[in-house]
Amino acid sequence: MSIIVSENSVIKFLDLEKVNNRFREEIDLRIKKILDKGWYLQGEEDKSFEENFAKYIGVKHCIGCANGLDALNLIIRAYGFSSGDEIIVPANTYIASILAISENGCTPVLVEPSIITYNINPDLIEEKITGKTKAIMVVHLYGQAVQMDKIWELAKKYNLKIIEDSAQAHGAYYNGKKTGCLGDASGFSFYPGKNLGCMGDGGCVTTNDDELAKKIRAIANYGSDRKYHHIYKGINSRLDEIQAAILDVKLKYLDEDNKRRKQIAGYYRENVKNNRIILPEIYNENSHVWHIFAIRTNNRDELQKYLEKNDIQTNIHYPTPPHKQGAYKEWENNSYPISEEIHRTELSLPISPVMTDEEVEYVVEATNKWNI
Ligand SMILES: *Cc1c(COP(=O)(O)O)cnc(C)c1O
Fold this sequence. Notes:
The protein has helices at residues 16-21, 24-37, 44-57, 68-79, 95-103, 149-158, 210-219, 241-251, 254-271, 300-309, 337-345, 357-368, and strands at residues 61-65, 86-90, 107-111, 133-139, 161-165, 173-174, 177-178, 185-189, 203-207, 224-226, 229-230, 293-296, 346-349. It has 372 residues and is α/β, with parallel strands linked by helices. Bound molecules: pyridoxal-5'-phosphate.
């Protein structure tokens, strides 16, 4: 059985060209301005985007950097966490969250996610806290804000920092506050495919901590607090003017784009009806910005093949859990059954602000007719 609605056109998982072409004129103008001026780093565009993004999130500081992994790395580095220190992190996150911890010589302590929210299970954190624990890294996975109450309590009780990985959740809310200001510091990624993405690599740190912000800004710029004056053994991790300008343009449309994602997710959640498929759940209308629409099924690979045959591109987030990756051989015998279950069954349906109603309906129709 094959449903032919769009004979030659494939429904892309994410049509980035279409996403970005909506802003082509505005972006062209901003880039032209940069070329005319000949100033490429740490200039007006960077300053403007940092101010606008800080305002958008509701924090005092935004520090642009080269990518999301660097943002997390810079936060851990600036806190001075290093060898022997433990940082709690969800077992089913994208590996970058864990790499940032390892990169600083700290020990990542994996905690199982909830099988309902796919975010870290707050009830399983306390048993993993030791005298060496320095921080809890929460990851707002797939675009849904982590439920923070219990985590705030634990951080206070054990004097731990809360580091947010907000790389998938630009604009998501928890209790009326946006991700990026729910902890002590947050890392964002502006990788092209994210809800707010540039045209290359980009990232930033957001925080209300003046000292931390100053330190991160210096470390990211060769450890320099002023020109040719180096107080840290820093790195070079900056957001360039062209990426900052692109982000500054796209930021204005982020809420609108997230609204469209929410609409599509709502349509999927109401209309996908197939008893082999588990749909994602939300605890609050504003908690989720639907970076990824994650469904689960025992026959994931078959469903993916079937949809592909029907010209629908899907993705898997993610096929292999971090503890089964070659990079973390030391964990290969560890078992995280909930995380493994998610990795075994997850499939991401196409979702993006440029999908048409027809495309969304077609995906629903095909998914509902899946019958193995
Ligand atoms: C994308 C992503 C990162 C890394 O961001 P980059 O900009 O690609 O380095 C980190 N954590 C999560 C959860 C991500 O999705």
